[in-house]
Amino acid sequence: SAGGDQSSESEQEEPTADEPTEDEPTGGDDGGDTAGEYAGFDESTCEAFDMTKFTELYEATPDPDETYTSASSSGDTGNLSCTFYSGFDTSTVSVMAWSDASGAMGWWEDDKAFWEEEPDYELTELTDLGDAGYHLVFGEEGSYQKRSVSVVSGALEFEVDCWISSDQKDPALADEYLQDMGEQILTMFTEYA
């Protein structure tokens, strides 16, 4: 019938969700317009992050040949790890979806309790990301520091860290980068948060 032919033609002309058109990007960073497009526990999600704040912090873009990624999922759980390098500058993003919110919160609370007891780490509450969070700093001002945020939101738990020489890089800019990546994660993984 004619109706069947139209349906067949339409399917041939329009790309499926899995087949990008020639006008659409197939990956990489295009300034953040793809946020959520690659969201999921797949290594290609690491390529979807807008790395503008990384570039501002380290005055260089992440080296794609040195980026380390790993991902796995099973049912409604999963994990993703992305480590970005630019020379000796390093940042890691770790995202985990739990089967329920109580599992995520329990893990996050245990982790927080551990770091609160560590004398070489400065922990402060983080109230503007997710359901609960903390900011952690290891290393003295003016020295090499690890700065991180750890957040739980619904069944989603994540950590973003970066290493800086705080006498050469602005710690406030490092914290802006951590905040920005946290906001991107919450957007990209909103179905778990």
List the helices and strands and how they pair.
Layout: H1 2-13, H2 45-48, H3 52-58, E1 68-74, E2 77-86, E3 89-97, H4 101-116, E4 121-126, E5 132-138, E6 144-153, E7 156-165, H5 171-188
Antiparallel strand pairs: 1-2, 2-3, 3-7, 4-5, 5-6, 6-7
Helix pairs in contact: 3-5
**Number of E-type strands:** 7
Distance between the termini: 47 Å
* Gyration radius, in Å: 20 Å
> Beta fraction of the residues?
25-35%
User: Percentage of helical residues?
Assistant: 25-40%
Descriptive overview:
With 193 residues, this protein is of the alpha+beta class. The protein has five helices and seven strands. The chain has a seven-stranded antiparallel sheet, with helices on both faces. The N and C termini lie far apart (47 Å).
Quick recap:
The protein contains 5 helices and 7 strands, in the order αααβββαββββα. It is an alpha+beta fold and 193 residues long.
